[in-house]
Fold:
Amino acid sequence: MKPTITAFAQSPDRGRGLTRDMQVRWALEEVGQPYNVRLVSFDEMKQDAHRALHPFGQIPTYQEDELALFESGSIVFHIAERHRGLLPDDANARARAISWMFAALSTIEPPIIDLGIALLLEHAESWHEQRLPFVKDRLRVRLGALSDRLGTADWLDGGFSAGDLVMISVMRRLNASGILQEYPNLHAYVARGEARPAFQRAFAAQLAVFTAAAND
Ligand code: GTB
Structure:
């Protein structure tokens, strides 16, 4: 049976592919697995029926036969484990690709989220201008180390993997900030991921939802 994922009926990202159903769509496209999308409103997300699938009342969720999952990282991991194409066959290379998924979510994403919060929610605070350089510098420490590790390689560890998919998805949130341009190899790395046909199909599918809702 085709898996079903959930996505925003009206996405606040305005079709920029920034909500987290995007990485799930991208992973499904990479492995060639067709899927259904169930669109949910903000109200529906907070109802018991949706909370039974997602304890925090969020998107994305993933349902496949009796299996129901939440958390984009675990969903991408599941897809990568069940299909060929996103994790290497070699056991050690596979373990390293999984490490990069965790690194994306637990080492790189938190300072990115902090910057997003500072820019979006704290800009009117009296201490905003004082705090912002610290938030940016903490992020630069992580991006600098990642940039050093990537060097001139196309992907983080050999061929493209779920580790790259999650890392690039996380870093795409910086696209509008200008900070990624300080690291030309990371900027090119994100662009390389976005140029993949599977990414393009996932992006177009998410954009189509936004466009249809906007024309309603
Ligand atoms: N850790 C979870 C995961 O990775 O799956 C986080 C899931 C999550 O944050 N979901 C968000 C959600 O459902 C949508 S993606 N929010 C509704 C709520 O919490 O009530 C996060 C997101 C939202 C908006 C933008 N944007 O406008 O650009 C980008 C990303």
Observations:
- Residues 91-121 form the longest helix (31 residues).
- The longest strand covers residues 4-8.
- The chain has a mean pLDDT of 96.
- Residues 12-13, 18-20, 45, 57-60, 71-73 surround S-(P-nitrobenzyl)glutathione (CB under 6 Å).
